[in-house]
Amino acid sequence: xxxxxxxxxxxxxxxxxxxxxxxxxxxxxxxxxxxxxxxxxxxxxxxxxxxxxxxxxxxxxxxxxxxxxxxxxxxxxxxxxxxxxxxxxxxxxxxxxxxxxxxxxxxxxxxxxxxxxxxxxxxxxxxxxxxxxxxxxxxxxxxxxxxxxxxxxxxxxxxxxxxxxxxxxxxxxxxxxxxxxxxxxxxxxxxxxxxxxxxxxxxxxxxxxxxxxxxxxxxxxxxxxxxxxxxxxxxxxxxxxxxxxxxxxxxxxxxxxxxxxxxxxxxxxxxxxxxxxxxxxxxxxxxxxxxxxxxxxxxxxxxxxxxxxxxxxxxxxxxxxxxxxxxxxxxxxxxxxxxxxxxxxxxxxxxxxxxxxxxxxxxxxxxxxxxxxxxxxxxxxxxxxxxxxxxxxxxxxxxxxxxxxxxxxxxxxxxxxxxxxxxxxxxxxxxxxxxxxxxxxxxxxxxxxxxxxxxxxxxxxxxxxxxxxxxxxxxxxxxxxxxxxxxxxxxxxxxxxxxxxxxxxxxxxxxxxxxxxxxxxxxxxxxxxxxxxxxxxxxxxxxxxxxxxxxxxxxxxxxxxxxxxxxxxxxxxxxxxxxxxxxxxxxxxxxxxxxxxxxxxxxxxxxxxxxxxxxxxxxxxxxxxxxxxxxxxxxxxxxxxxxxxxxxxxxxxxxxxxxxxxxxxxxxxxxxxxxxxxxxxxxxxxxxxxxxxxxxxxxxxxxxxxxxxxxxxxxxxxxxxxx
Amino acid sequence: xxxxxxxxxxxxxxxxxxxxxxxxxxxxxxxxxxxxxxxxxxxxxxxxxxxxxx
Lengths: 723, 54
Fold this sequence. Notes:
The complex is a heterodimer.
Chain A: E1 16-17, E2 23-29, H1 35-46, E3 51-57, E4 62-67, H2 74-84, E5 88-90, H3 93-96, H4 102-132, H5 139-173, H6 180-199, H7 207-241, E6 245-249, E7 255-259, E8 268-271, E9 281-285, E10 288-291, H8 293-296, E11 302-304, E12 309-310, E13 315-316, E14 321-325, H9 333-348, H10 354-379, H11 384-397, H12 401-420, E15 423-425, H13 428-434, E16 439-442, H14 444-448, E17 449-455, H15 460-470, H16 476-483, E18 492-497, E19 501-506, E20 509-514, H17 516-519, E21 530-535, E22 541-549, H18 553-562, E23 566-570, H19 575-585, E24 589-591, H20 596-608, E25 613-616, H21 620-628, E26 631-635, H22 640-645, E27 648-650, H23 656-691, H24 697-716
Parallel strand pairs in A: 16-23, 16-25, 23-24, 25-26, 26-27
Antiparallel strand pairs in A: 1-2, 2-4, 2-5, 3-4, 6-7, 6-8, 8-14, 9-12, 9-14, 10-11, 10-13, 15-27, 17-22, 18-19, 19-20, 20-21, 21-22
Helix pairs in contact in A: 1-2, 4-5, 4-7, 5-6, 5-7, 6-7, 6-11, 7-12, 7-24, 9-21, 10-11, 11-23, 12-23, 12-24, 13-23, 15-16, 18-23, 20-21, 23-24
Chain B: H1 2-27, H2 34-40
């Protein structure tokens, strides 16, 4: 989006004051990928007067500029970035601070401590293990080793276990048992028993097992966090790009860039070509055409002139408009959709993930087995100490490594694989939901079609005549025409009449390109998907445009059907174009002319009928349906609100990404289930052995790391999934 | 056996130093921008881009 800052609007509402009198600006910079970009941007902005420091985070795209005082000018920074070729958008100061990744740091520290503890407690455990196999180890040496192992292992386990203890406590307080309950119980009991054993000069201590178990589990926890935080930051970026910014004119006519939430009813707003209408407003002055495709699904541009009302979200195509706000951002039509999206997101958060469903079965079984071991052991003549030791051995040996480590490992491998194929996965839960779908709903405009006009039956000779004039215009139809021609000549003395067309001189002859009436066609048709071109007094040439279907849409739909899924089209466009697309793609079920609310109701009705719906949509009119669907995908060209509502976002032209994502999600699910199967099998062998007292600390450590390794390797087989 | 009482604490001490170093790198924000750090070593004149504390 080419926005110029010639008139330098005032962006100071986005500056965040520091304690020491300076100010900080957080910008999201798009397109910076390499060392050269990094140094170019930092050097250029760093050299600006008043800038104290400029640092770009290449991983997140966040650019932090610190000004020496509060008079810094964000607009200058943005115009410098624009000139260098990187579009940027300011973060809302309120939202930027929340993005700091505290949780990630805490997990990394816990992981480091667990690694230290596991390694060093193990150092003292090796002699203990040797002692188990009849090597010479006197009782006092053994106690000394146990004490040393405990001195290192226990504090480390307590620190590294905190994330699990806290989560277990939170879940217990609301009366549920998640995966962290058996983990916490296992670790705490193990530590307690080992402590008592050491004091009583017993044989079996498990300090090293407790801390290395936490180490393995923290790896899984950390991977899961990485996956979620990458998705979260993608969502935050979308929010920033959605730019909470509108250009408000004050009484003197000066331009101020303001966060959307600060726009009041009655404010005068300036909307340049290429910008979106920020709030519901009526046109004060200026003429233009609006592209409401993302709002209603309708492909035809709508002409607006003073006095007319335009809805928030429409894209201004060619004239500069001055609007008067009719509603605040929260009351605009867009906000109503946003509320529907929120409601959908809440219903989605009720989804119970695979690992938690497994935990619901696993927790009662394992805990009863441990309790049974204790009771039976005592009843059958073991001492209470020996019975308790065996019960704890059961808890340790069955500790859910596979559930804690294998599922995140599968999901991070799967999402890394999809990422390389241009699909961004927002969470592990999204992959699990995607694997369950039975029915696919497509939006038409921008999903099945490319969402931009393409010339029908191009005639190169005719195009070459009109191209010099088409190149001088910003209108989408003119752009589509110019794209068809390889030449570079430009018409002279070009004058553009908003809503009508362009006029200019080509090779000494005056020519016009635009609407039928503008070019002077005798019987002007009202069809807005056509352009006319003529030299003065010469034959008039007609160019018709349509919204072309994505090249691989048919193949993708056939692939989905081959996988046993049913396909349907829900569109906001008129019945004619929708029927044509449905016929061409071989889709029998379709509905046209739907409002955003009807779309989301249709999806809800499908879910009530027992279908698990995958919604693929891009417009604001799809956002509510996307959030209601069991799983949702949006193309990278989609409106930000839709990308936020979707679970997966795919880039590129190919609709095949939907098929690939589905395949990978299914494979990921299979790997996860295999891992569950493996751990069930392992527990079936190990738990009885522990009950019979056949497990000693050495076998416990060996079995635990062995099973973790096996499930992780199985997860890595993911790399071959999908096309 | 006496050597054990020297070497055991010594090895734990070494590991503690390692843990301390790791702790410092995390608190120092050295894992916040892996892509940027990989790119930064390619840029000349490091004095123009001083490493700030994040």
